[in-house]
Amino acid sequence: MNSSETILSVNNLNKYYGALQALDNVSFEIKKGNVYGILGPNGSGKSTTLGITLNVVNKTSGGYKWFSGKMETHEALKKVGAIIERPNFYPYMTAEENLWLVCKIKGINYAKVNEKLELVGLTERKNSKFSTFSLGMKQRLAIASALLNDPEILILDEPTNGLDPQGIHQIRDIIKQIAATGTTILLASHLLDEVEKVCTHVLVLRKGVILYTGLVDGMSANDIFFELNSDDNENLIKVLNNHPAVKNIATDQGNVLVYLKENLESKDLNRFLFENNIILNHLVKRKNSLEEQFLELTERK
User: Fold this and answer.
1) Which residues, in sequence order, are CB contacts of 222 under 8 Å at separation 6+?
2) Would the keyword Membrane be found if you checked this record's keyword annotation (predicted)?
């Protein structure tokens, strides 16, 4: 499979729970070798989307295809590793024994157990009972289990939920390591910080509707603006409205915010205003942070 090949394509997916529409015409593609984040507040439809593609939640309408539809879903899912619920292992068995059992059930070579325990940093605890593990260690063991079959894609639903800062850091490092081996990753999260740190691509969901899909860096790439101030902001706004590069103007805490249709250099804007008898007290060129962009998207009515 080459790097441009599609691992998962979702087309016009809709899901109703009674009168509640959980997914509204959701479509996206997952290409090999990237780390995708489905980002949105709780209740936005992230888990429902993952559940449908993993054949554990029934869709209302629309469809999805694994590996360009070259195989049936149950066959395709053998190439998928997923953690969509809390890790469920036998508490009285050791980490190693639990993974041996998974290998036995799925017909996987037992040699994979030590390899995956090392990847998630649990080699020294492989003979410890699952019941003695912290929440973070349980989650790491679950990741090891999901990787035993060397999946083409790893799917994680809120992988750091409930973990302490150290546990969060460890899980994120493991995700980066897995991605570095070429495994495609799809993770759902309500944490912007998580997506920003580990993902290459993001899909933003709110109330079952896609608000943005594309590169993480692209979310704020087009939102460059100027923050201005003068002794006469009313006149400043009037003059700015005549500039061809200005898209719209807002005010915030006594400053005038100028959003652009096209790139404009600070010196050129300053010269234009000076020629129109406006002397600025303050001029800063700014770029919306990913957080500002995300909040703007998800809080929109």
Assistant:
1) none
2) no
Strand (E) or helix (H) holding 284: strand 280-287
Choosing from 188, 220, 252, the residue where a domain stops is 220
- Compute the chain's Rg from CA coordinates: 24
Q: Note the pLDDT tens digit of each residue in 22-78.
A: 999 999 999 999 999 999 988 999 999 999 999 999 999 999 999 998 889 999 999
| Whole-number Å distance between alpha carbons of 32 and 280 | 50
Regarding whether 213 and 274 lie in a shared domain, the answer is no
Q: Residue 262 falls within a domain, yes or no?
A: yes
99, 144 contact by CB (below 8 A): yes
How far apart, in whole angstroms, are the C-alpha atoms of residue 191 and residue 181? 24
Q: Quick one: which of 47, 44, 59, 48 has its CA closest to 207?
A: 44
CA distance 37 to 189: 7
> Which string of DSSP letters, residue by residue, matches 204-252?
EEETTEEEEEEETGGGTTT-EEEEEEES-HHHHHHHHTT-TTEEEEEEE
- 9's enclosing H/E stretch is strand 6-17
Q: What is the pTM of this model?
A: 0.78
d(CA 214, CA 132): 41
Helix or strand holding residue 24 (H, E): strand 20-31
> Hey, CA dihedral for 121, 46, 67, 102, is it positive or negative?
positive
Q: Strand 184-189 and strand 35-39: pairing? A: parallel
